[in-house]
Amino acid sequence: MRFSLSLSSPHCFLRFSTLSPLPHYPSMASGSNSLIWFRKGLRIHDNPALEYASNGSTYLYPVFVIDPHYMEPDPNAFSPGSTRAGLNRIRFLLESLVDLDSSLQKLGSRLLVFKGEPSEVLFRCLKEWDIKKLCFEYDTEPYYQALDIKVKNYASAAGIEVFSPVSHTLFNPADIIQKNGGRPPLTYQSFMKLAGQPSWASSPLSTNISGLSPVGNVGNCEISKVPTLQELGYEDIGQDELTPFRGGESEALKRLDGAMKDKEWVAKFEKPKGDPSAFQKPATTVLSPYLKFGCLSSRYFYQCIQDVQKNVKKHTLPPVSLLGQLLWRDFFYTVAFGTPNFDQMKGNRICKQIPWNVDDGLLAAWRDARTGFPWIDAIMVQLQKWGWMHHLARHCVACFLTRGDLFVHWEKGRDVFERLLIDSDWAINNGNWLWLSCSSFFYQYNRIYSPISFGKKYDPNGDYIRHFLPILKDMPKEYIYEPWTAPLSIQNKAKCIIGKDYPKPVISHDIASKECKRMLAEAYELNKKLNGSVSEEDLKISRRKFEEDQSQESNSKRLKNKS
DNA sequence: GAAGGGTTGTAGCT
DNA sequence: AGCTACAACCCTTC
């Protein structure tokens, strides 16, 4: 906290001088009114901002603001939803809000929902209700960093106390960066050394609140209930088309409980050994969407895992253990917070500069599950329908799009994931795309996931493919990962003609992956030579060079074929 | 400068 | 299920 405040102070002064005269506050006779502003942290348990807001206040106003920029339907988007979020995640959020409202009501309170630009709405509320204490969970994302400076400046000018605790992550990213001399650690091991045990690891978290201060008079503020999808302007889509995962804290705790009951499973958890093709019963906890919205406290989750581990003889360790997964989350939050332009290649000091293709055709084929590789396409269908896939499945499609086969820019794939995943998290999503594209953290670009054999290893019968790509459901298992190799008689029998009912592969994996390796090798060399300061012009030149090489190669092949 | 390590590659062998 | 070769990257640490 201290570190981040000192970071933001220059902006503070700038913003301060541009503020209009101090707002006038009505001289309402009141004790002390507090406002808890929910953004993430959509929970009651282990919610320090909520607890602090309620303590000693006469009235407590729990507020959530629906931001039209995030929630308004966008008919031009490539899938149902808003500009930024697919329908699955919007629905997950609404369900989480309904659950939060009902939990608040059990504690004698309720959720006050507004629509509009968050800071404008908030300023109106602060004035109208004569708020003395404003509480909200600290957020490290650039969007909230900018918004929160605005809000904090307004509050301090108006003499309102602001309480903004770090409770979304296990550690405060700013502390870890400070410990490391101002730069974030770039490896998991160095992160672990710096982080150590969380300060609260063995002290009880506040998971039981018996009651909250009542909601005061809301005055002239226009408050609505949690809207339905239809009220937000979305069409009614069949349940079958939507994610099987329900949002909300209650659901999160139920799911957590279910996972923790199987002590052996928790103790033996090894992430890389999970089966990405398991969909009836996923190989992981599927708690990520709940962590994303803060329906589940990562600290509470941490303590639950710790409890299980204490009571077994042997358990796995980070990075592969279940606890290790939570630490990965904090790792990415820390690097993301301490790296300017973390979500792009340009101006990102930890990101290799690579001359990615600009090929919207290949991107669209990948996005719309038309690559012709059933393993890849099935995963993309699961993404569209469920908004969730196993971690290793994400690896396969991310590798395929970028360094493995299509050589499309990781930012394009990132955008698709960010929109469609119900657990899409700014720091983690960008971190993993940097990882998978060999742009940062991970550099062994020879290790390419095969779009054919990787899935086969887990699911030789192709049940996962048959489920998400029913057009291939009668394809014999000998051909289901490479249906273009099936004889026409087999294709006929399976009622799936390749090139007509299901596409032919967009590339040859053998050729494309070799080409990708070569391009990465050259790009790395250039990055080394220019010591990280690769310009747009350098990238253009190498892109052109690759294209020339490619056409020369195909020319020589043509010549060879002729002779 | 060299050595060691890096959450999760593939193919082929036992 | 576990070894090996394959080809070989980067970053951290010494």
Structure explained in plain terms:
By secondary structure, the protein is mainly alpha-helical. The protein folds into 3 domains: 2-167, Rossmann fold; 169-205 and 249-338, Serine Threonine Protein Phosphatase 5, Tetratricopeptide repeat; 360-562, DNA Cyclobutane Dipyrimidine Photolyase, subunit A, domain 3 (Orthogonal Bundle), CATH 1.10.579.10. Helices cover 48% and strands 5% of the residues. It contains 23 helices and 5 strands. Strands 3-2-1-4-5 form a 5-stranded parallel β-sheet, with helices on both faces. Helix 17 (410-420) packs antiparallel against helix 18 (426-436). The radius of gyration is 26 Å and the shape is globular. The protein binds a DNA duplex (14 and 14 nucleotides) through helix 8, helix 13, helix 16 and helix 22.
In short, what is this structure?
This protein is mainly α.
Write the layout of secondary structure elements.
Blueprint: H1 2-18, E1 33-38, H2 48-54, E2 59-66, H3 68-71, H4 87-106, E3 112-115, H5 118-128, E4 131-135, H6 142-157, E5 161-163, H7 173-179, H8 188-195, H9 249-261, H10 263-268, H11 288-293, H12 298-310, H13 322-338, H14 360-367, H15 374-386, H16 391-404, H17 410-420, H18 426-436, H19 453-458, H20 463-468, H21 488-493, H22 509-529, H23 536-562
Parallel strand pairs: 1-2, 1-4, 2-3, 4-5
Helix pairs in contact: 1-6, 5-6, 7-13, 13-18, 15-16, 17-18
The protein binds a DNA duplex (14 and 14 nucleotides) through helix 8, helix 13, helix 16 and helix 22.
Key features of this structure:
563 residues, mainly alpha, Rossmann fold, Serine Threonine Protein Phosphatase 5, Tetratricopeptide repeat, DNA Cyclobutane Dipyrimidine Photolyase, subunit A, domain 3, 3 domains, disordered N terminus, DNA-binding, (6-4)DNA photolyase
